[in-house]
Amino acid sequence: MSVQPKKHLGQHFLTDKNMCRKIADQFIESHDCHNVLEIGPGMGALTDFLLKREGLNVKVMEIDRDSVAYLEENKPKLKDKIYSADFLKTDITQLFDGEPFAVVGNFPYNISSQIIFKCIENRDLVPEIMGMFQKEMAERIAEKPGTKVYGIISVLTQAFYDIEYCFTVDAQMFNPPPKVQSGVIRCVRNSTQKLACDEKLFIQIVKASFNQRRKTIRNSVKGFLKGNVVEDQIFTLRPERLSVEDFVYLTNLIEKLIPGD
Predict the structure, then answer these.
(1) Can you tell me whether residue 253 is helix, strand or coil?
(2) 199-257: CATH number
(3) I need a surface site. Which of 5, 87, 89, 247 has the fewest CB within 10 A?
(4) Quick check: 213 and 238 in contact, CB under 8 A?
């Protein structure tokens, strides 16, 4: 039995075993976390190498019923550890009885950013995210301030995770080959438990800033200023110049201008 990749699910099965091993090796069990949830395992190419790691408690979540059936038949080590579910629609707080777990996988390109955002929302439970994304997305998540690649997902992820771009994966290693290259990154939760500002306002300001990224900060956040005029150097910059710390500063500055709002 084998599984045919389904286009509507964005499936591209990694077929190179050496690459699967190399990707699995990027998982470093940060924060002494030995629970692992692999998203979208397909036929288990990456899963096999995770299962070989001593001391790991590996569970998988797969939305494709054919893949679930294949795993149930061919991966006895996964007995009672296969969730036939959509990660984005699942309450993940009790997957490991409330214990922290790492999220790994060859993530479907069409939902990879949503996976990241859900992990950020549940960052207290997710100390590490390691996996493969479309190369452009992987680079965007890992990018530092100062370039056109740096954007919303860069800031929001880097607010809570330290990110390393590990390596690029060629399209020919997949079945079917995607039209783009892939990139593997590792995100390790940093020491930030809570931002030193209103986090909801922070997210709104980051999004507003990059939604008009060609404009200066003063123009892109003028809706928050309520007509107030503030002389601060930060308002003369464009959003790609601002670090996470700068956006925290900006958020606090704006919050003081609109007390009680």
Answers:
(1) helix
(2) 1.10.8.100
(3) 89
(4) yes
- At 241, the pLDDT band (50, 70, 90 cuts) reads very high
- In degrees rounded to 5, what are phi and psi of residue 207? -65, -45
Q: Mean pLDDT across the stretch 52-72?
A: 95
Token pair 């996964």 is found at 78
The token pair at 142 is 């890992």
Residue 209 φ then ψ, to 5°: -65, -45
Q: Are 124 and 98 in contact (CB under 8 A)?
A: no
The domain spans of the chain are 7-189, 199-257
Mean predicted confidence (pLDDT) in 178-201: 94
Q: Counting beta carbons within 10 angstroms of the beta carbon of residue 104, is it exposed (0 to 12), middle (13 to 18) or buried (19 or more)? A: buried
The Cβ of residue 100 has, within 10 Å, a number of other Cβ atoms equal to 18
Superfamily of domain 7-189: Vaccinia Virus protein VP39 (3.40.50.150)
- Closest listed residue to residue 246, CA positions, set 206, 198, 218: 206
**Mean pLDDT score, 234-244:** 96
| pLDDT for 259 | 54
Alpha carbon separation from 106 to 50, 70, 201 (Å, rounded):
13, 17, 32
